[in-house]
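Inverse folding, one chain.
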């Protein structure tokens, strides 16, 4: 569909590829599985997958079966791992469309063991995150042997997930230790052994010789929660244009509830983006970038619009970057009292994406 709005998320595919190469450098000899759940962390899963396939990637992970099936329609050869919980009634769809599923508790394992469907599975081990995964070592070892003995089941992978890879090294090491100690007890290990997320990939994966794959999410998109930025490049820039300008006299106010009133004669630019686009009301005291300079947002953010205080060097039609440039996604996350993951995944379906790359 043609895009009519002067508001868009610019997605830089060259930056995305650069970030993939950073992961590969830190995880030599390992296969990177890009995590493209939640519509590629808001960047557009279909486009991201197509681009990465061109670059030679053939394994992707998502959270839900819907996400996996949407991607399967696009490509029938890539490996697609569904990391979220599969329901027993959905095993048939996973089997039919060759979606690799995660076995996350004892009940689903019983269903899989009694099923005649052909299923490719990854066993998820809970080493401390306490979300999805198995904890009882005796049960895990027996389940692995039973699954490996079934001809309709391919127990392709085993994995765990870190709770504190970017925050608490001691607990991170505890999780690594628990996973390793389990693996060495297995008679036959599944070939796809993975535990690292972005932070663990960039900081530690080189030190591990017992894993074969990593699941790389947020840093593929150029972001991290760490202070060390690893030379990552942000992929998404949220942009809009000034569509109209208001000249306010001293004491005249803008927007709902009149929360901002001019302290002197002022110029206000109106931006056609609001909280229904995922640019939330908490942004009201933040800055924007126009012509490489900072200009403050003023007044309440509306559903479809917001206001920026400008000067007479700024004109209707000028591009305003809300994050991803001078105003980093981290700055916006801080202002929203959240993490950068939430900022990019919150950008709503209403914001069209423009993909840019050198060779487009
Ligand atoms: C199971 C699992 N693996 C990997 C990832 C990727 O983590 P990150 O985005 O921190 O790289 C996630 C993200 O939430 C996840 O849930």
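Residues assigned per position:
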């Amino acid at each position: 569909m043609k895009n009519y709005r002067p508001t868009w998320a610019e997605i830089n595919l060259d930056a995305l590829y650069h970030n993939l190469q950073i992961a590969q450098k830190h995880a030599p000899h390992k296969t990177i599985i890009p995590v493209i759940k939640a519509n590629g962390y808001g960047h557009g899963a279909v486009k991201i997958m197509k681009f990465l396939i061109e670059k030679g990637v053939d394994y992707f992970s998502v959270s839900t079966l819907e996400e996996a099936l949407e991607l399967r329609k696009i490509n029938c050869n890539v490996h697609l791992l569904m990391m979220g919980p599969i329901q027993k009634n959905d095993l048939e769809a996973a089997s039919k469309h060759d979606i690799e599923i995660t076995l996350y508790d004892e009940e689903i394992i019983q269903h899989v063991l009694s099923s005649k469907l052909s299923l490719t599975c990854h066993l998820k081990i809970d080493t401390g995150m306490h979300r999805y995964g198995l904890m009882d070592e005796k049960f895990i070892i027996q389940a692995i042997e039973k699954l490996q003995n079934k001809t309709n089941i391919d127990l392709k992978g085993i994995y765990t997930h870190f709770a504190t890879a970017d925050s608490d090294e001691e607990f991170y090491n505890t999780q690594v230790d628990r996973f390793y100690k389990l693996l060495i007890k297995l008679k036959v290990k599944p070939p796809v052994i993975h535990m690292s997320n972005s932070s663990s990939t960039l900081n530690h994966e080189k030190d591990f010789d017992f894993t074969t794959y990593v699941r790389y999410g947020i840093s593929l998109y150029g972001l991290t929660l760490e202070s060390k930025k690893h030379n990552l490049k942000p992929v998404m820039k949220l942009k809009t244009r000034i569509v109209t300008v208001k000249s306010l006299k001293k004491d005249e106010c803008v927007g709902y509830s009149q929360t901002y009133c001019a302290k002197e004669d002022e110029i206000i630019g109106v931006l056609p983006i609001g909280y229904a686009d995922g640019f939330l009301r908490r942004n009201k005291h933040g800055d924007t970038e126009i012509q490489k300079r900072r200009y403050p947002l003023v007044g309440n953010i509306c559903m479809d619009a917001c206001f920026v205080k400008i000067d007479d060097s700024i004109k209707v039609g000028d591009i305003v970057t809300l994050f991803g440039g001078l105003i980093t996604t981290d700055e916006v996350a801080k202002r929203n009292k959240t993490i950068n993951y939430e900022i990019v995944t919150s950008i709503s379906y209403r914001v069209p994406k423009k993909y840019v790359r050198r060779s487009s």
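The CA atoms of residues 113 and 146 lie 8 Å apart. The chain has eleven helices and 19 strands.
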